[in-house]
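Structure (tokenized):
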């Protein structure tokens, strides 16, 4: 479970022990939506790029290859050959993104598959059953990720329903494990804090779910269009009411600057599709800022992408070659770029942990919080 090693202000340095290994925190979880990183990376590539946790998508894996098929094949760890911790989301965000195709009731949500339009019902019990079949290390509770902003009364009703759903998730996962129906009998459950940008809803909801004594807690419903200053404010408001002895996860965030701001406010875990998605379009993170490798100025540039980086791309290839691969639509360019960005994010987290170990996080934060999000 979570062990707090030290603080620097609100920033936390810790360890999170699971049946699939110990995670050094703060950490970034690399997003493998359909059990693979988009861009042609395998579990072994993740390991080579210092990934600690892989995140997979409950909704997408339920549709294909089917969670029951994954269970028959031994669960996600055996299926993907990833031997570290895996977190599966609950499907709640997909319900949010499919808002035009959904109907929410007390029992759960009915919505249309984005693949073929067939009707799907998912509630707390169904989400837990799917995640139990996947055998992840961490299962996320089923919640509603609301639009932000939302009307106060709707947000309040949604928060209340999410608490009721969370209690059902906890009961169902306990039943599945007790009856030997979970691929991973040690599967953990994280609850998700909601409440849009209403301080009283956020605080009240956090207090209610903290009372359920779960394995970890996430802050959801942010990074969905609100100003980043508002996101940071909400994190600070919620953090004060999060259990100090449980791990904290900020969902779907974000840029290197966002991560530094989150760590500064007491967050332990992060995830985002941004590093791999940006890489596939040639937008690459470096310790001097963000570059677009497709720009003409790199056509004859023999430098590595980032001299301070030790990833496979930076060790072996020039900016000119990487630009050529993108312009020629060669798959290798996308693969190298994604490897670089994920290596950068994982190395960023390593350097954050080292700064916290050394008591120099504040100086590290001030040096890089704006620089790393700047486009060169």
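Design, position by position:
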């Amino acid at each position: 479970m979570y062990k707090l090693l030290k603080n620097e202000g609100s920033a936390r340095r810790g360890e999170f022990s699971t049946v699939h290994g110990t995670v050094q925190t703060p950490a970034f979880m690399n997003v493998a939506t359909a059990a693979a990183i988009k861009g042609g990376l395998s579990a072994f590539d993740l390991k080579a790029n210092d990934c600690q946790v892989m995140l997979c998508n409950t909704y997408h894996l339920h549709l294909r290859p089917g969670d029951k098929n994954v269970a028959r094949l031994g669960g996600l760890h055996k299926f993907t050959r990833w031997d570290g911790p895996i977190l599966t989301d609950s499907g709640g965000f997909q319900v949010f993104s499919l808002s035009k195709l959904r109907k929410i009731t007390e029992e759960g949500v009915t919505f249309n598959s984005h693949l073929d339009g067939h009707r799907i019902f998912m509630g707390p019990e169904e989400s837990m059953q799917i995640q139990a079949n996947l055998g992840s290390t961490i299962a996320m509770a089923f919640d509603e990720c609301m639009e932000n902003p939302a009307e106060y009364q709707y947000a309040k009703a949604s928060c209340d329903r999410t608490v009721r759903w969370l209690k059902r998730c906890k009961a169902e996962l306990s039943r599945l494990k007790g009856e030997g129906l979970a691929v991973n009998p040690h599967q953990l459950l994280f609850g998700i804090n909601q409440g849009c940008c209403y301080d009283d809803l956020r605080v009240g909801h956090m207090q209610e779910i903290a009372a359920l004594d779960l394995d970890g807690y996430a802050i959801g419903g942010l990074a969905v269009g609100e100003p980043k200053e508002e996101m940071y404010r909400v994190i600070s408001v919620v953090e004060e009411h999060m259990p100090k002895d449980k791990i904290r996860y900020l969902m779907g965030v974000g840029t290197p600057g966002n991560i530094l701001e989150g760590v500064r406010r007491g967050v332990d875990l992060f995830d985002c599709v941004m590093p791999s998605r940006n890489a596939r379009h040639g937008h690459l993170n470096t310790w001097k800022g963000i570059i677009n490798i497709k720009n003409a100025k790199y056509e004859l540039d023999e430098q590595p992408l980032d001299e301070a980086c030790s990833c496979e791309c930076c060790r072996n290839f020039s900016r000119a070659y990487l630009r050529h691969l993108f312009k020629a639509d060669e798959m290798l360019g996308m693969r190298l770029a994604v490897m670089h960005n994920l290596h950068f994010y994982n190395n960023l987290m390593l350097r954050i942990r080292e700064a916290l170990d050394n008591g120099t996080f504040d100086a590290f934060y001030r040096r890089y919080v704006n620089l790393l999000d700047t486009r060169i």
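Reviewer-requested clarification: The mean pLDDT is 95. The first helix runs from residue 43 to 48.
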